[in-house]
Amino acid sequence: MPAxxxxxxxxxxxxxxxxxxxxxxxxxxxxxAPDLRILIVEAGPHTQEDLAHVQPARCFSHLxxxxxxxxxxxxxxSDHLNGRPLVIQTGQCVGGGSSMNFVMYTRxxxxxYDDWEKVYKNPGWGFDDLLPLIKKTENFQAIGGAPRQTxxxxxxxxxxxxxxxxxxxxDYLTTMAxxxxxxxxxxxxxxxxxxxxxxxxxxxxxxxxxxRRADVPHNFLYDKTPRNSNLQIVVGxxxxxxxxxxxxxxxxxxxxxxxxxPTADNAPRVxxxxxxxxxxxxxxxxxxxxxxxxIGARDIIERFGLELVVDLPGVGENxxxxxxxxxxxxxxxxxxxxxxxxxxxxxxxAKWSAQWLKDGTGMMASxxxxxxxxxRPNPEELKNIGPDFAxxxxxxxxxxxxxxxxxxxxxxxxxxxxxxxxxxxxxxxGGFMYYPSGIGSIHITSADDVEAPPDFDTGVxxxxxxxxxxxxxxxxTREFARRMSTYRGEYAPDHPExxxxxxxxIPEGPVMPVPIDAPEIVYTTQDDEAIDDLIRxxxxxxxxxxxxGPDV
Length: 552
Fold this sequence. Notes:
This protein has 15 helices and 22 strands. It is α+β, with helices and mostly antiparallel strands and 552 residues long.
């Protein structure tokens, strides 16, 4: 390796990106091998003891346009979304998604891991191989009694029901117990084994004793013991490229992020790695780093005048996200919701912060998502979804009977694009897709400017089977909600404009719940078109979770 210049530093291992995976890997390496010098280069800010990150209920603050802890990636305008560009949020802070997501504890089925090993030919990545590592990470506090076989109890990341159980969630589960007797209520639908079609109180990445978010940096990186003295975190800096010499990655070049350090110069810095460079910048950052380093599809690399190092066409391809539909409903007077915290109401913030500081309980120790179900349709429900989903069902879901198609749940808050007047109480019932068909891509638009907007095709709703599933989600969640005692009608601005005289028309004014055995709403073809139009115009993605792609 050439001698270092005055502007260069040297480490053993460098992580290009300081999100969830980098934090776990770097923290464990630092603890296991104190002689290693480790560097994390993170584009966002620190999160240490910041209430926006340690108080769970503040998770929604990271969705605002002016946040600096998430980056808003704007997709191309899409005909599948009625011509609109979809904006996706991705974590940009130390800890990444673990520091700013909705703290939902949602584990995949066993077959997902076994697919890695058997379908995609990755020996050692099956469920039995990875379960010990999964258990090593968590401390499962949600259920007492004898230990559960697939949960861990000695790891750093706490899992509990949080410090508050909303009346909305209790109402939801009570209603489901009467309305859908084919899906029983259980205490654990996250065992990763036969979890489908069970309603449950939903666990969260929250410490039961303190009410704090169980994130990666506060449990793997921000450690005051000497074990992490060999680990350095540089924040507010974006990795531009990997330095490759003689076919080996030997360092990174990085620049200041003007969103975090607006007065810093834009001169590139270099950090060299004696042993290893780990590209860990997430679904959006990693492909860009690779492409700017000359690793990617030949036509993209050469289009921007870069030297082709490795012709790897998959880089930036196969982007896959979680399309979501949240359906808002008016709530009965006196219903407690998180809306005041989300609106940053001073009285609500003060009230719930005081309780959180006192004993780690109350709404600040919640995400408002307190109940749900991993939903897999029965034959009658498949018929309702319609023929557009048939091929996907047969090819993907039938061979894996432990896979759900969507996560259904209830939220004790309003989440949408047309906020109601202050004081209006709302709750949402909806869901997000686990395995959508729509595939997109993300690629660089500049060889030098790391802040240049990417060429981003979200792929959302590009496959008609995804739209059919979300249409079904709307219909099912509306049936759930209008039977809940909390229900006082639909919040009309965020519902479809059904044809005049339709049986599906939104009732005017406050209304009361229908009986459990009331007939279900019958939708016409025109009604379905109205639902589809709403989804295309207003639907989004649950992207506070890490997206499932692209290839990197």
